[in-house]
Amino acid sequence: MISSGESYDLKVPENIQRAAAFEGGLNRYGTPNYRIVWGWARKELRAGMMTNFDASGNEISQEMVEEWQPKYWPRDRFHMEVWVPPESYGTPEQWTKETAATVNGSFVHRLGAYPDKGDYEHLFTCQGRDGEFVMPTEAAVIEVIRWHKRLRNRTSEEIQADIDEEIKQSKEVRQKKYRDIIDSEVKAFPWRIWMPVSGQLPKRLEV
């Protein structure tokens, strides 16, 4: 039983990683385009100022520290990642400009060095509908990869069509809900006259 907030060191089953590599293929550097990681084990380098206090709670000093911290939340879940090419992070100069800072005279990269071979970013959290722990399966991994590939290959027209369809379905759901409410009110209070937001006054409703 995996409880939220506790630290565990779970290994990703080899057959799951093989399925992800086979279905997703390899990138230009020979590493998988998709992979599964354990939340506590997937870490990234972060830099920032740490304030030190004495026993009475008084601030006594500040220092620049670099720490490897878990990248994703929840940490006690498996996560699927997708490889992102280095050019997606801009040029090394842009990376330095956007992520580096000078603090107390020290020049630091708050997100580490430029990912010259790309990096992996979050795609999917392996958990149930209610957020409970779920062990990834080969079938689930393959389904997510195929879904993501279809998503990336869609044209702008297809994306807009999907958006329009979602809006249409949302309107239909709201309209049905409104009609159901009116119908239930009419049956409960047949002597009432219902006035629409716009338009003429309807005839008295009979049931």
Describe the structure.
The structure is a single chain. The protein contains four helices and seven strands. With 207 residues, it is α+β, with helices and mostly antiparallel strands. A three-stranded antiparallel beta sheet has the order 1-4-7. Helix 1 runs parallel beside helix 3. Mean pLDDT is 81; it is low at 1-5.
Main traits of this protein?
207 residues, alpha+beta, 4 helices, 7 strands, extended, 2 domains, two-stranded antiparallel ribbon, disordered N terminus, three-stranded antiparallel beta sheet
How are the SSEs ordered, and which strands pair?
Layout lengths: L13 H11 L9 E5 L4 E11 L5 E12 L7 E7 L7 H8 E4 L2 E4 L9 E8 L11 H16 L2 H33 L19
Antiparallel strand pairs: 1-4, 2-3, 4-7, 5-6
Helix pairs in contact: 1-3
Describe the structure concisely for a colleague.
Helices cover 33% and strands 25% of the residues.
Overall morphology? extended
Average pLDDT over all residues: 81
Uncertain regions: pLDDT < 50 for 5+ in a row? 1-5
Query: How many strands, what sense, and barrel or not for the largest sheet?
Result: 3 strands, antiparallel
